[in-house]
Amino acid sequence: MVTYNIIKHIAVLSENTKTGWKKELNIVSWNGNEPKYDIREWSADHVKMGKGVTLTEDEYKVLTGEVK
Predict the structure, then answer these.
(1) Which is the most buried residue in 11, 12, 40, 62, by most CB within 10 A?
(2) Phi and psi of 21, rounded to 5°?
(3) The sheet that has 36-42: what strands, in order across it?
(4) Where are the alpha helices (DSSP H) in the chain?
């Protein structure tokens, strides 16, 4: 069983008007591991989720242009 803890909600990137699910950028700890930046769709109650992408701090900085 996968466990998760949303450490920090950063932004809603979009919302699916049919399902109400929101694509979000959060910092999430998966299975008790070090928190990572996470982009994925979540149900309104954050109980269900879609497939997503996790990024380390360094990867996030490259993506946002903080590091080149």
Answers:
(1) 40
(2) -70, 145
(3) 4-15, 22-30, 36-42, 49-55
(4) 57-64
Tokens 């996968």 correspond to what residue?
2
Taking the model in full, what pTM does it have?
Answer: 0.91
Rg (CA), the chain: 12
Q: Is 45 left (phi over 0), alpha (psi -120 to 50) or beta?
A: alpha
Q: Phi-psi region for residue 15, left (φ > 0), alpha (ψ -120 to 50) or beta? A: beta
Q: Are 39 and 23 in contact (CB under 8 A)?
A: yes
Q: What is the pLDDT of residues 8-67, one digit of tens each?
A: 999 999 999 999 999 999 999 999 999 999 999 999 999 999 999 999 999 999 999 998
Phi-psi region of 61 (alpha: psi -120 to 50; beta: other; left: phi over 0): alpha
